[in-house]
Design goal:
The structure is a homodimer. In chain A, α8 packs across α9, α9 packs across α19 and α11 crosses α16. In chain A, strands 3-1-2-14-13-8-7-4-5-6 form a ten-stranded mixed sheet, sandwiched between helices. A four-stranded parallel sheet of chain A has the order 10-11-9-12, with helices on both faces. In chain A, strands 15-16 form a two-stranded antiparallel sheet. The longest helix of chain A is centred in the middle third of the chain and has 22 residues. Helix content of chain A is about 40%, strand content about 15%. With about 550 residues, chain A is an alpha/beta fold. At the A-B interface, α1, α8, β12, α17 and α20 of A face α1, α8, β12, α17 and α20 of B.
């Protein structure tokens, strides 16, 4: 197996640990805070989570009062759940190193290809060699990932069965909000069934939307944004050199616009759309396109027929008329194969009796290929596949139409040459930045410590992340305190609350304060490629989002 | 102006120079070899280049016989020509530093936005501050670039006029094969008109197709391929983690497939198409798609419904039936606005009397949106815009159709989920790798030395590039020795010969020896982001293409 020089060199990197996890294990005390509450519907939560609700937040510290870590041999299973995020391998490495430090006879198993591996009992025991081959690398390929949700009584029972067969002490779920919700439900279920298998979560998602008082950032966000920032900076430099392209960049991140916002703070593009703002102001797609047109027209006056526009992947779901269109299509259209041979026009005709006139207008106003994307194959739940809609091309089409009008009116004399891009998969499996390598290793090591402290239904945390790693505050928080009740697929369900971009938060306000200027002038910043060595301000920096949220500038 | 931490840190980087250019200038001798010849049509060349033909190759060395560098104050104008390539700013910085080392009263001017700046006399004098603000950065934004060709007698006369007005001693043209052909013609023209303004070229292009005995690699190829390699490696890691996507990646590089080949050598994808091979074997598009289908089917048998396919941008021009289609369309279709409102079907109908039946079949076999791209707006010369054709989607469409057939026959049981990408602009303006930063600085410094030696019609060279920079052999080669006569736009013209991928060369053979294995197995290599610091094997490596061509493994 050929290994790149970078990968070989990264094997030698020793992730930095918080001081409280660098101690001899017997010195670590697990301090408890007061009882906690869910974010809403507390009585309901007390029923659903009868055995795990209301537990205290815990922090690791040196000596003194508090639980101690068990040194007995432990058997733990790890699951990588959902989309890849840089650093997942380091969570597993930290967990492994913690287990082996606790007791050399401890064993770590990996469930294969996501939560389905737990349900089906598909697993491997992770050897020291396997761990070493994946330290500080990107990807989830050590055991694979998957999107199976453990939902049915049969799946829960099968999961317990697997845990029993393997004589597990704990399961560590490395995933996003849904996967950690699942972890909380599993923890409760196991107790309910009289099992003492513990369940611990770890906050993963490049989207950055698993965030609250105890999770300052989800892992992978740092590396993914730095990778996209590199590319956007390169495009901006290209735009300013060739002086003839407008680059429209759609960025992964469907539910929230954290990635787009972070990339905007890092690279200072001319326009960055923020879905949460569009929804809050109930902006139409036309007015969104209009804001881009404004920038193009103003820059053309200066002779600058080039620019950069950032677009969050989920944008269309936040534009009221398109949100409605999608909802109506989800209800009205089967997406079945019978439609496949029909022309777009015939399919639109067939739709007209089943969706509102407004939605038909919205569809007909789109370029044909984009309208086709709304009508294309459905996801397994029968829903429009929003992630496949090329919003960047939709906006380019609308912008072009508007610029043609303005040209006729003499209000625009520039030349518009768009280039579209979608960045997503490129950043999910990058080698984790030093920050993510350290953070993930700490989360994994912390997950071991939570298990060894006999806790369940917790998520591994590290806080104070803008300080040097030694000063990070490692501990755990009960998953239920991050949850509320939401309607999902027609039923009220307890779920971890997603963190959307806070329009009153410092990251958004920092961007909003700049954007009128950015829309006109070229203030591009070129972050360059992620550096793993070099001056610490280059190789060890954190995201602008984290820095601003933590009070920095 | 906000500057990224990486950019600040890169300002401090001191490019490494060949030993022969690190001497005190008075110690440098310019040694001459024997007379040189053009690649073909030598008698014709002697006429066209009556004053510059047949000059010797020159090498810089320490002391001894040979021309000396003039220490008088020089006035030099620099031009950035054509598409951006990482390191252009360092060519200018090297040239500037050489000029100032020669004589502090020397002056460097930059012509704005490409060769058009010379014709129109648009220029700036480059200050120490401007140079320092661009050292070791990507992009051509210090003076902009452009694609104007100096072709007409009026343009040549205007260029001389500008040179006279600025009292220039020399012009340095930083560009690809066409731009350096232009440099050779300018050099001859100036002498013909009795002017002693010298013209020196520098070999720029990310495409890697400006290459010969004296140019081991064009600058920018290293950085661009490393940037694409980073992204392809990340996609491959994602593919192997999620285990459900086939990534089809089209890579910039229209005339030659060097970029795709280098990326294949760096990342070991399942399939990499090489245009030169397709042309040599006269493969049909169907058989090209068939080679991808083979890999998909074989991998599906192993349960591996994922993979990575690399596609050179210019592919369609090398497939005989599509090459013919494009030629016929260039002749037959005006691309005029009258067609704009028509449906694809109507446009195809209109075409049927003007192109061959084979070409109509090829068009009709394509997915509608791709066929539309062939019929879309023409470039300013009235030609199909090949760079806008989404070959990756064309191939996906053909692969899908074939897999459906195989599924019906029971010969394929996998699930095919394609994702398409185009990487080009992302790599043209990256911060130059240490290699490109050093190489470009040496080329720029060498260009100064060629000017100070009183030479014209030369290209700046550095050879022995796999050795440490101190051992590089700096010098110059007469541009005419790289030229032959080719038919361009209907006329016989002297041009620098493009280097296509050599199917007998070591890079291609190294890839060809692996590809049957790669088509079936996951042997992905993950190069990671370009590193500017760290272990030298990571931060200072060269491309696999250069290493293999220079005899390495």
């Amino acid at each position: 197996m050929e290994i790149s020089e970078l990968q070989k060199a990264r094997y030698e990197y020793k992730p930095k640990l918080p001081a409280s996890l660098s101690l001899a294990l017997d010195e670590i005390a697990v301090k408890e805070g007061g009882p906690t509450e869910a974010l809403s519907d507390r009585e309901e939560f007390k029923k659903i989570f009868a055995r795990t609700y209301g537990k205290p937040v815990v922090a690791f510290s040196k000596g003194g009062e508090g639980r101690k870590l068990s040194r007995r041999a432990l058997r733990v299973g790890a699951i990588l759940s959902g989309g890849q995020a840089p650093g997942g391998h380091n969570v597993i490495a930290g967990l492994y190193d913690g287990l082996k430090a606790g007791n050399p006879d401890s064993a770590l198993f990996g469930f294969l290809d996501g939560p389905g591996g737990l349900v089906d009992g598909k697993h491997v025991e992770l050897s020291a060699q396997a761990i070493d081959a994946h330290r500080n690398t990107g990807g989830f390929d050590i055991i694979g990932s998957g999107r199976t949700k453990i939902e049915t009584p049969e799946q829960f029972a099968a999961s317990l069965e697997t845990a029993k067969k393997l004589a597990l002490d704990a399961i560590v779920v490395i995933g996003g909000d849904d996967s950690n919700t699942n972890a909380a439900l599993l923890a409760e279920y196991f107790l309910e069934k009289g099992s003492d298998v513990k369940v611990i979560g770890c906050p993963k998602t490049i989207d950055g939307d698993l965030k609250n008082d105890f999770i300052e950032t989800s892992f992978g966000f740092d590396t993914a944004c730095k990778t996209y920032g590199e590319l956007i900076g390169n495009l901006a430099r290209d735009a300013g050199s060739a002086k003839k392209h407008w680059h429209f960049v759609r960025l992964m991140g469907r539910a929230a616009s954290h990635i787009a916002l972070e990339c905007a703070l890092r690279t200072k593009p001319n326009v960055c759309l923020i879905s949460e703002e569009i929804e809050a102001k109930a902006l139409s797609l036309e007015s969104v396109a209009g804001s881009i047109v404004d920038s193009i027209v103003k820059r053309a006056v200066k002779g600058d027929d080039f620019g950069v526009v950032l677009i969050p992947e989920g944008l269309v779901e936040f534009v009221p008329e398109i949100k409605r269109l999608i909802a109506e299509l989800n209800d009205a259209v089967s997406g079945d194969a019978a439609d496949e041979g029909l022309s777009l026009e015939a399919r639109l005709e067939g739709l007209s009796s089943r969706v509102s006139a407004e939605s038909m207008r919205a569809l007909r106003a789109m370029p044909a290929d984009i309208a086709g994307e709304f009508l294309a194959d459905r996801d397994p739940h029968g829903n429009v596949q929003v992630s496949k809609i090329q919003t960047e091309k939709l906006l380019v089409g609308m912008v072009e139409a508007r610029l043609r009008e303005l040209k006729k009116q003499g209000a625009y004399k520039g030349k518009f040459t768009p280039q579209t891009h979608f960045f997503g998969y490129e950043g999910r499996c990058a080698f984790p930045s030093n920050f993510d390598a350290d953070y993930c290793y700490a989360l994994g090591f912390g997950a071991f410590a939570l298990v060894a402290a006999g806790l369940t239904g917790y998520i591994s945390c590290a806080r104070n992340l803008t300080a040097p790693a030694a000063e990070w505050e490692a501990g755990g928080a009960p998953l239920t305190m991050m949850m509320n009740i939401e309607r999902r697929h027609g039923a009220q369900k307890p779920v971890i609350k997603k963190a959307l971009v806070d329009l009153d938060g410092r990251p958004f306000r920092a961007f909003a304060a700049l954007r009128d200027d950015l829309a006109v002038h070229s203030r591009y910043v070129f972050p360059g490629a992620i550096q793993y060595w070099g001056p610490p301000e280059v190789s060890d920096d954190v995201t602008a989002t984290l820095r601003l949220e933590r009070g920095g500038e």
